[in-house]
């Protein structure tokens, strides 16, 4: 089966994403999370809303977070924060010394799917009383913007999942 | 062709990897780099030294670093630092809610190939007079240890390359 989407998951103790740079009229804006997962998302040609639903279920259930007892658990059961970062370059393919991006979905559809991904994660967090009590949040980057990220980890524990 | 190795490349303005935690008898040790690339490396079954040579050539030549003029260039031409991090979990495959690691090479061979990878990069840096004049360094993590990483980026610009 052709890959239609790709995510990279890294663990963090804290992460800060700059949403907008400082300008003459405003200060820089940041999205910050505490302990949890940073999820980089890339949609390729063929991705659709059904796939996004499947991806979100997997992301919320995958046991890659280190719990207090050292055992791996899901972000939902940790519970922890989620930072979702659009990262179209994940769909790049090495060609000689350069990378080509022919497989990536067009910007309009990619932006729609990304927004859906973030909304579904946010809904799921809001419907989970344990996560709400713990004050867990979903933060996200801006599709198409440069993603200026600072991350503190206890081991990034990087995983790649293709859909 | 079966994948025998996988790397994830992220750009950084600075990165710090903890090599050893603080203990009763010694302070924590860190590997630090300035602007350059963080390369996560995973060897799968079937990887060998010839493949490592090919991987190193690609890593040093791939144009994924942002030069002063905004154009993409290689780490060699930037020139910049390199932080090489062993990351066996990149070879994991999602199975239900858990990740399985059956494809990963055994620890002895993986450790050997990782050392070769770091040595070849270091040799290449040392043979390049422009990199030497700029004080560029290759730093690396310890195979099998937990990789405690802090990273500051101007956009991680994450790429995955399979070999």
Automatic annotation (TrEMBL), chains A, B:
Signal peptide: none annotated. It holds the Pfam family Tyr_Deacylase. It catalyses: glycyl-tRNA(Ala) + H2O = tRNA(Ala) + glycine + H(+); a D-aminoacyl-tRNA + H2O = a tRNA + a D-alpha-amino acid + H(+). The keyword Hydrolase applies. Keywords: Cytoplasm, Hydrolase. GO terms for molecular function: D-tyrosyl-tRNA(Tyr) deacylase activity. Its main location: cytoplasm. GO terms for cellular component: cytoplasm. It is found in: Cytoplasm. Its EC number is 3.1.1.96. InterPro entries: Daa-tRNA_deacyls_DTD, DTD-like_sf. It is an enzyme of class 3 (hydrolase). Homodimer. This is D-aminoacyl-tRNA deacylase. The gene is LOC106155974.
